[in-house]
Design goal:
- Helix 6 packs parallel to helix 10.
- By secondary structure, the chain is of the alpha+beta class.
- The two termini are 35 Å apart.
- The N terminus is likely disordered.
- The strands form four sheets. Strands 4, 5, 6, 7, 8 and 9 form a six-stranded mixed beta sheet that branches. A five-stranded mixed beta sheet has the order 11-12-10-16-13.
- It holds the Pfam family DUF2066.
- InterPro entries: DUF2066.
- It comes from Aliidiomarina iranensis.
- This is DUF2066 domain-containing protein.
Length: 408
């Protein structure tokens, strides 16, 4: 509720104050709704079972139609589970695509709004074995949700921010490809708070400080800022000449020879203290968005599932803060669900403190990065030294130790 003393205000001031308060309440309600949606998406995670499912629209339910589409669904699952499109270039994988029925667990159909979709799920053990034989890791667990700011040079409106509510091929390609790859991408609300914090020129001009500050209100793990433009824009001799003023101060325009593809997207991705740049091109908006999602997902996946030169490694995880056995079992299950973890052994448990010995491909660095997106745990501190451990995996040796506090 808000109260305004109309006697102390002029009629104009009264109306202005009323509108400001109304807009503030609308913005708060929209923000609460968006945060609820975002938090639910982040907490949901990506279990391996979810990643092994795929669907696609079909013209009918004939066997010929099904046999034609199932290999595509199988390839979609392999890309999503491995985290990289390079998996389809592997000779072992290519030879197995035609044997998709050996990996198929079940299939079915769903009809909605006169569209028939073929849905299929694939066998976890067989998919794991195939990827392991081909030398690819598995990307499971919570995947980082990314916030995407996109500035474009519109021929009619000039430099502007792309909004999530627009109906355009770019957003259609963005959302559908993100779903296909199993990555979460969120676009800002662009309410009053966003508009006050950052403008189109900030994103276009790569002013990362302003963009990152405006992104703090969103529960995301990474921020992507991008500028999208046509390679046929006049006034530029090269793409490096692009600047905030490229479209306002160009008295001596130099014609740029059109090239194919003619759409360009320059992106900067920031996740924690890591920052990298991707340069994406395509001939149309939808393809540009799909290429963008694929390049960014490949890059992000490489950060979390990179394998160590020594292969798998045995490490120690020490958890504190357990109040009952149920929480202990939940922690053990959480570790087992991480894609690169092969074995989990409870070494000891006493007075709410548990020690697990975990065999993981990618080592302690990979597991620490994966657990950084687990809201149930909190990293205490990086150990100054490794602790000697004796367990049933092998003989006594010094192994990396990670320490966490169980939150819920």
């Amino acid at each position: 509720m808000f109260i305004i003393d109309a006697q102390l205000l002029s009629k104009a001031n009264f109306v202005r104050c009323l509108i400001q308060n109304l807009m503030r309440h609308i913005a708060l309600a929209a923000m609460a709704s968006a945060l609820l949606f975002s938090s639910a998406a982040f907490a949901q995670g990506n279990s391996l079972g979810d990643l092994l499912q795929a669907d696609a629209p079909v013209n009918g339910q004939t066997r010929a139609e099904r046999q034609r589409e199932l290999p595509n669904l199988f390839q979609q699952v392999l890309v999503r589970v491995s985290g990289t499109t390079q998996v389809l270039e592997n000779e072992i994988i290519r030879n197995e695509i035609s044997s998709f029925n050996d990996y198929l667990l079940q299939y079915g159909y769903q009809s909605a709004e006169n569209v028939i979709s073929l849905q299929a799920s694939f066998d976890e053990r067989r998919v794991r074995d195939l990827l392991q034989r081909a030398g690819f890791p598995i990307w499971t667990g919570d995947r980082p949700q990314l916030l995407l700011w996109v500035a474009e040079n519109n021929p009619d409106l000039g430099v502007r921010l792309v909004r999530r509510s627009e109906q355009r091929p770019f957003l259609e390609g963005l959302y559908s490809e993100a779903q296909r790859r199993g990555i979460r991408m969120l676009m800002p609300l662009m309410d009053l708070e966003d508009q006050m914090a950052v403008g189109a020129r900030d994103v276009w001009g790569r002013f990362q400080r302003e963009v990152l500050q405006a992104s703090q209100r969103y529960p995301v793990a990474g921020v992507v800022s991008a500028r999208m433009y046509s390679a046929e824009m006049p006034g530029l001799e090269s793409f490096d000449d692009l600047s905030v003023d490229a479209f306002t101060d160009a008295p001596d325009a130099v014609s740029l020879t059109p090239i194919e593809p003619n759409l360009v997207m320059e992106t900067t991705i920031v996740i924690g203290d890591m920052q990298f740049i991707e340069y994406v091109t395509a001939a149309d908006e939808e393809t540009l968005a799909r290429n963008f999602v694929n390049q960014v997902t490949d890059r992000v996946a490489a950060l979390f599932i990179s394998q160590s030169d020594d292969g798998s490694e045995l490490i120690t995880l020490r958890f504190s803060g357990f109040s009952d056995i149920g929480q202990l079992l939940a922690a053990e299950q959480m570790l087992q669900q991480q894609g690169q973890v092969y074995r989990v052994h409870l070494a000891q448990y006493q007075q709410g403190i548990a020690e697990f010995h975990v065999q993981v491909n990618g080592g302690a660095a990979w597991l620490a990065q994966a657990l950084a997106f687990e809201r149930r745990v909190q990293r205490i501190a990086a150990p100054e030294q490794d602790l000697p451990v004796v367990d049933d995996f092998d003989t006594a040796e010094r192994k990396p130790t990670l320490e966490y506090r169980w939150l819920r």
